[in-house]
Write a structure and sequence with these properties.
By secondary structure, this protein is of the alpha/beta class. It has helices at residues 16-29, 47-53, 79-85, 95-100, 105-117, 130-134, 138-146, 154-157, 178-195, 198-203, 217-221, 238-247, and strands spanning 5-9, 37-41, 59-62, 89-92, 121-126, 160-164, 206-208, 228-231. It has a single domain, classed as Aldolase class I (TIM Barrel, Alpha-Beta Barrel), CATH 3.20.20. The chain binds 1,3-dihydroxyacetonephosphate. 1,3-dihydroxyacetonephosphate is lined by residues 9, 94, 165, 170-171, 209-212, 230-234.
């Protein structure tokens, strides 16, 4: 069985005090026996502060890093540095990085290898545009984004989760219906079965992201192939995020 994961992508939001009080609120609100993995992805400048006040089961990840380990790469941080700070996870392949920062598949593969080398878990994001959904090429698009994983070993795949984030649903208030989301998640699972094995595919968590909130989380998380969520806007408020965490069984 795949782990249940609820992840919070804070993106480039919050001032330091707000980030600290958000984490404090989550620490107080998440039950001690919570079975899902809870991971927050704050802006990287707050990672160190947040880890130093975090005495809970909440894990802290990084939204971005560079694939080299060290050297003359002004402005960048590496996966081994993140690991050294106590980060457990990284996001790779988010559509905002693919689109706004031109991250190619070639670069994403180097980032995957670098995170694996640093022993950091990866949430690998994929998703189609509105045009691709409308012209019917959405399944092919996701399949091509998943191909980047094909050469990974079984051991390496143990460190990977997938987040399906339809671009048209990110930050728009438009959510994929449970039917649309489950269809894609089942497709992703099928691709993983065909590429690797049934056993391995059943162990890989597939998260939904894209305007997931406290009102729709329950229905989405009830779908058989949805193992949790990667939450943007609704993860910035303690109450909303706690309700989403409460929706995962
Ligand atoms: P929203 O939940 O704000 O749509 O963002 C989703 C997302 O991009 C998470 O990575």
């Amino acid at each position: 069985m795949a782990n249940k994961i609820i992840a919070a992508n804070w993106k480039m939001n919050l001032m330091r005090d707000e980030a600290v009080s958000l984490l404090e609120g989550l620490k107080n609100g998440i039950p001690e026996n919570e079975k899902a993995d809870i991971v927050i992805f704050p802006p990287s400048i707050y990672i160190s502060d947040l880890i130093s006040i975090n005495d809970s089961q909440i894990e802290v990840g990084a939204q971005n890093f560079y694939f080299e380990n060290k050297g003359a790469f002004t402005g960048e941080v590496s996966a081994i540095q993140l690991k050294d700070m106590g980060c457990t996870h990284v996001l790779i392949g988010h559509s905002e990085r693919r689109e706004l920062f031109d991250e190619s598949n070639e670069l994403l593969f180097k980032k995957i290898k670098s995170a694996l080398h640093a022993n950091i878990k990866i949430i690998y994001c994929c998703g189609e545009s509105l045009q691709e959904r409308e012209d019917g090429s959405h399944l092919m698009k996701i399949q091509s984004q998943l191909e980047i994983l094909n050469s990974l070993t079984n051991n390496e795949l143990n460190s990977i989760s997938i987040a399906y984030e339809p671009i048209w649903a990110i930050g728009t208030g438009l959510t994929a219906t449970p039917l649309q989301a489950e269809e894609m998640h089942a497709f992703i699972r099928r691709v993983l079965i065909d590429t690797f094995s049934k056993e391995l595919a059943s162990e890989i968590s597939i998260l939904y992201g894209g305007s997931c909130n406290e009102n729709n989380a329950n229905e989405l998380f009830n779908c058989p192939n949805i193992d949790g969520g990667l939450i943007g806007g609704a993860s910035l408020k303690v109450d909303s995020f706690l309700k989403i965490v409460d929706s995962i069984k």
